[in-house]
Amino acid sequence: MDFRYVVKEQYNGKTLREIMINELSMSNTMIKRVKLYGILEVNGEHRRVIDTVKTGDHVFASYDDDSGDLKKDPDIPVIYEDSYLAVVRKPAGVVTHPSHNHLDDSLITRLSEKTLHPVMRLDRETSGLLVLAKNGFVHNAMTDTKITKRYVAAVYGSFSPEEGIIDKNMRRRENSVMIRDVVPEDDPKGKKAVTIYKTIVKDPEKDISLVEYELITGRCHQIRVHSGSEGHPLVGDGLYGPNSIDNPSDMFPQSKELDEKIGRQALHAYYLQFKHPITEEMMTFKDEIPEDIKGLFSDAASDIIDKSFGHIG
After folding, report:
1. Is 123 a catalytic residue?
2. In what order do the strands lie in the sheet with 2-6?
């Protein structure tokens, strides 16, 4: 991977390290790799990271990360791929990172024998679009990149009003590793959480709705907790839904049948937009609604979804 930079006035007399961190978005690890194994030049001559530069100098840094292309996996479609990153469609039931019980069948181990860096996280049962950085530099650069993330979910009941903003702080439940709760603003352990929602289709026959969510913050389980706090848990949600052990409810008598039908939380990451960290091109990706989510709705509502989904956004 090559990096080129013409020194601006503000870096006159500054070190190459400062430029590599502030302008090239390099982590300390990446700088060390360039220093030990790569090339670092100013105006075509070798330099050290502690050397200073002057306005107008041409900086060149290079490091071969040997990331390579992703492997083919019939269950994990690659939507986009270049030398720096990839956008893939994660199926429900697949974990993103390797874990104790999923050392060899996680998404990143199935796609590459080299290290991949997921830029965002999707729960195991959530399907949808996911960004993977191919090396630590791109991953570090994307931590400062605004990513617009939108999801669709099938939820019980229907929101009133049909669209709005949920601004409720969240925190982990006492004595629980997984469960999150909405808490008052004055809770010292609460963290800011903001979700925009918009109803796409209401299905009175099944008493469910298809809702679009856009995350402003990115708290763990944010959509599931926020939607449930408004009285509209996600269909199939085994942790926060009406048939869960920890958050049971008898408000939706049809929920057992629908939960069993889908067998997972009805949540899909369908839309991503971000500026490419290297080319600075604005990238937009939009996915279809999975058949298992569409299959929850009545025929009439499903027809509306097919006609209207292309206009979401």
Report:
1. yes
2. 2-6, 58-62, 39-42, 45-46
Which helix (H) or strand (E) covers residue 299, if one does?
Answer: helix 299-308
**What is the CATH class of 148-269?**
alpha beta
Residue 86 has pLDDT above 90, yes or no: yes
The CATH code of the domain at 68-144 is 3.30.2350.10
Q: Quick one: fold of 2-62?
A: 3.10.290
Q: Which amino acid is at 155?
A: V
Instruction: State the catalytic residue, choosing from 2, 69, 105, 123.
Output: 123
- 16-30: per-residue pLDDT in tens? 999 999 988 887 878
- Contact assessment for residue 241 and residue 258, using Cβ atoms and an 8 Å cutoff: no
* Structural tokens at position 61: 């840094």
User: Can you tell me which residue has the tokens 């569409």?
Assistant: 294
Q: What is the mean pLDDT of residues 206-231?
A: 97
Residue 218, Cβ neighbours under 10 Å: how many?
A: 11
pLDDT greater at residue 276 or residue 69:
276
Beta-bridge mates of residue 58 = 6
Q: Pick from 6, 25, 7: which is nearest to 275 by CA?
A: 25
Question: Is residue 310 predicted with pLDDT exceeding 70?
Answer: no
Per-chain mean pLDDT for the chain:
92
